[in-house]
Design a protein that fits this description.
mainly beta; 15-stranded mixed β-sheet; 3-stranded mixed β-sheet; globular
Length: about 425
């Protein structure tokens, strides 16, 4: 099987590591043992097999829908048509011609724990949309109908949800150093090098004493504690399978990578959600570091206009009262503000270059969403620059590809340009690059 072209969307491939060389020359094999075969060569070259031609649909979910949510493991689910594939996805099919069955070891290659990757081609360049491993196969055999296999996959964040930490007292460290130290521990043993992209962090975490880590502490839960009570950044697995830690979300020096619009000047969208709710404001915040005093930030005017709506962080890993007060100020949002929270676009309404740009959108990217709104009978465009917090792909191999992104507010800063009438002004949004 090989990559397939999806109508109005592009060329895709779905690759599974079957655990053995699928294109290696094999003596006495009626198929793989043919001399001068272009498909089976000496030593072979890959253990990844394409299942794209037998795929009916794929759905991918990564990230979070709301900036106050935690980042859970990314997931991908795909459905295979085993009837169309003549039963080769059946784990009991050990026929020598089955490309997914390991004859040498007598085991199916399509099995839980195998690496998996969904890619879309930008020209001749494969761009991953999801990288992870298979968690479960569900076979449905229908008498007189289609036999299908639903394959559920997760990314490497799942690995952190099943790992625990031995009891120890960490030293005082910036958040990035603490994350790397946990990943390096023998009982966690997370891959190093290119498998990680860990930012330094903006605040220090306490060490020893009250900051000791108890035996059996879950790695994912501890990283959530770092994110929620101290750094307020992001920890997630990107589309290439890399564990990414990003610093506190604040003013961003970045150019939006895609503009979604309903006016025809950018990427067209077919669905837009706008939130304007009480959950969007907090006017009393208390942050209590584990070894320091509680710090409070509040807005009296907001409390008088609405009511006291509070947020309490009681187990902060921060090492100082100053950092705790900064975090309280950061979390203070005195006024509810309407914003664009989700945007959906169908590849069939995009140009090929727009499809290439939208396909590779990543968590943390900055986008712009524009909406024409009637104000006093006059069309008025509202534009918001937002960060991507979550991404969903829904792909029907017979009918197309839809992407939905979930967003969070962000503030863009621009490089200061001398003598420019806009970018030459001295203010908080024009900064030295």
């Amino acid at each position: 099987m090989a990559a397939v072209t999806i109508p109005n969307a592009g060329t895709y491939d779905l690759l599974v590591d079957v655990g053995f060389l699928i294109d290696g020359f094999t003596l006495d094999d009626p198929v793989k043992g043919l001399l001068d075969s272009p498909d089976y060569v000496l030593d072979g070259s890959t253990s990844f097999a394409s299942v794209a031609e037998g795929t009916l649909s794929v759905s991918v979910r990564r990230g979070r829908q709301d900036p106050d949510d935690v980042f859970n493991a990314g997931t991908m689910t795909f459905v295979l048509n085993d009837t169309l594939a003549d039963g080769v996805f059946n784990p009991f099919d050990n026929d020598p011609t089955n490309p997914y069955y390991d004859q040498a070891q007598g085991v199916p290659g399509l099995a839980p724990g195998r690496a998996v990757q969904l890619v879309r081609y930008d020209g001749s360049t494969p761009e991953p949309l999801f990288t992870g491993f298979i968690a479960n196969y569900e076979y449905q055999f229908v008498l007189g109908g289609l036999d299908t296999v639903t394959v559920m996959c997760v990314d490497n964040m799942y690995r952190l949800t099943t790992a625990t930490i031995s009891a120890h007292n960490p030293t005082k460290q910036f958040t990035g150093a603490r994350i790397n130290a946990i990943l390096d521990r023998a009982e966690v043993d997370y891959p190093t090098g290119a498998a990680r992209n860990i930012s330094t962090g903006t605040v220090e975490l306490g060490g020893g004493g009250n900051y000791s880590i108890a035996e059996g502490t879950n790695v994912k839960a501890y990283f959530d504690q770092i994110t929620n009570t101290a750094e307020r950044g992001r920890i997630f697995i990107d589309r290439e399978g890399v564990l990414v830690s990003q610093d506190r979300i604040g003013i961003t020096i970045a150019t939006p990578v895609v503009t979604f619009t309903d006016s025809g000047s950018g990427v067209p969208y077919n669905d837009l959600t706008i939130d304007f709710k009480a959950d969007e404001f907090v006017n009393y915040v208390s942050v209590s570091p584990l070894a320091h005093s509680t710090q409070v930030a509040q807005d009296a005017a907001s409390q008088a206009t609405y009511w006291v709506k509070s947020l309490a962080i009681t187990d902060s890993l921060l090492d100082s009262n100053a950092d705790a007060l900064d975090l309280a100020d950061y979390l203070l949002v005195p006024e509810p503000t309407p914003r664009f929270t989700g945007c959906q676009a169908w590849f069939g309404s995009m140009t090929s270059s727009q499809q290439d740009d939208v396909a590779v959108l990543e968590i943390g990217d900055i986008i712009t969403i524009e909406k024409d709104i009637l104000i006093g009978g006059t069309p008025t465009q509202r534009a918001e620059s937002l960060s991507i917090e979550g991404i969903e792909h829904r792909i029907g191999f017979a009918d197309g590809h839809t992407v939905r992104v979930y967003t969070a507010p962000t503030v863009l800063a621009y490089e200061l340009i001398l003598d420019d009438p806009v970018y030459g002004r001295l203010d908080e949004n024009n900064v030295l690059g």
